[in-house]
Amino acid sequence: MQIFVTNSELETEQIGERFAASLPDGAVVAMYGELGSGKTAFVRGMARGMGISMRVSSPTFTIVNEYRGDRELIHFDMYRLSSGDELFDIGWEDYLNRGSVCAVEWSENVEDAFYGDEIIVRFEKTSPTARRIIIEGGDEAC
Question: Which residues have C-beta within 8 Å of that of residue 133, sequence separation ≥ 6?
Fold first, then answer.
């Protein structure tokens, strides 16, 4: 387990960038945290760390955004889903079979869709600008 404390959105992005630089293709990153806790900022950093220059935004209404660059990142927002069954209905297994990195916001809504090998990233607001980021699983290299 690794624990980071960030004091700005930029610092949260930088942790995401370092985290994703060594992340293997096919990894599933299950993110947990309340609204505004830094999940999308972390994914923006992940994209940079993976050599992706596309603009990253929250897929709250589209549910899935795909980003391509040196590698592929698939960004899910499960806020509007209520179970893993709904995730399977939108092609979860097809996304997994592509071998892309999958970053999943609001993972608590679809925990029954995970296979137990995901990397867990928890975000906690500790002040209006500070966040605690806890990474469990994978090689945890940052």
Answer: 3, 4, 5, 6, 12, 15, 38, 42, 121, 122, 123, 124
* Cα 38–chain centre separation: 10
Q: What is the pLDDT of residue 58?
A: 80
Please state the domain extents for the chain.
2-136
Q: Tell the CATH superfamily of the 2-136 domain.
A: P-loop containing nucleotide triphosphate hydrolases (3.40.50.300)
* Closest-CA residue to 102 (of 110, 111, 92): 92
Q: Which residues of the chain have pLDDT under 70?
A: 139-142
